[in-house]
Amino acid sequence: MELLCFNELASTQTYLLEALRKKELSVPIAITAKEQTAGIGSRDNSWEGGSNNLFFSLALNLNDLPKDLPLSSASIYFSIFMKDILKEYSSDVWLKWPNDIYQNQSKIGGTITKKIDNILVCGMGINLQKSQNGFEALNINIEPIVLLEKYLFALEKYPSWKQQFSQYRVEFGRNKDCFAHVAGEYKSLKDAILSEDGSIILDKKRVYSLR
């Protein structure tokens, strides 16, 4: 996968999306920046930060992804890879449904995905050493580019959704003490039931991550 590195971007995802629409770049490709000044988080929230944190977006052809991957849960799939790598440096890293990366009870990163034609774009931000966006930082000593290279290497194996989801299911119980934005409301996940496609059943309704 081609990797383009920048000193500063407003948003790695915005840059990548615009370049793909203009056909200036082709997949598979990843974009990273040392500093991000107008990053995009869930629900159009911002995710900025300075050097020593990780900001990147990647674009993949849908045909290269596992055939059993539910696109509505793609953010979960891509987050699992990062969680596994981060656990090498901090044992208490886990995923909060649907797209947040946590250390203990503090959010330290997140993932969003977007489909454009036959391309899936994934953006991710991780606070490694500094917190400049209202969330906590992992405080681990690793260069962002090294972490990204390890992530891209793991992703190239494209394990099935079933394989990745099996470990996600095991730790889903940690969500019972959490809340999530569902249909414009901040709801408790105490009684949420996880489905095989990554969606949850909450208040007798099925909810998809779609992020």
User: Over all CA atoms, what is the radius of gyration?
Assistant: 16 Å
Order of helices and strands: EHEEHEEEEHHEEEEE
Figure out the total of helices. 4
Question: How many strand units?
Answer: 12
Helix content: 10-25%
Strand order across the largest sheet:
1-2-3-7-6-5-4
Oligomer: single chain
In the CATH scheme, what's the topology name? Answer: BirA Bifunctional Protein, domain 2
Q: What number of domains?
A: 1
**Class computed from helices, strands and strand pairing:** alpha+beta
Largest β sheet strand count, sense and barrel closure = 7 strands, mixed
C-alpha end-to-end distance: 23 Å
Strand content: 25-35%
Stretches where pLDDT falls below 50 for ≥5 residues?
A: none
What would the principal axes of the Cα set say about the shape?
globular
Question: What is the level 1 CATH name?
Answer: Alpha Beta
What is the gist of this entry?
It contains 4 helices and 12 strands; from the N terminus they run E-H-E-E-H-E-E-E-E-H-H-E-E-E-E-E. It is of the alpha+beta class and 211 residues long.
3D architecture notes:
This protein has one domain: 2-Layer Sandwich (BirA Bifunctional Protein, domain 2). It is globular, with a radius of gyration of 16 Å. With 211 residues, the protein is of the alpha+beta class. The model has no long low-confidence stretch (mean pLDDT 89).
Helix-strand blueprint:
Layout: E1 2-9, H1 12-21, E2 29-36, E3 54-61, H2 74-86, E4 93-96, E5 100-103, E6 106-116, E7 119-126, H3 144-155, H4 161-171, E8 179-182, E9 185-188, E10 193-194, E11 200-202, E12 205-207
Parallel strand pairs: 1-2
Antiparallel strand pairs: 2-3, 3-7, 4-5, 5-6, 6-7, 8-9, 10-11, 11-12
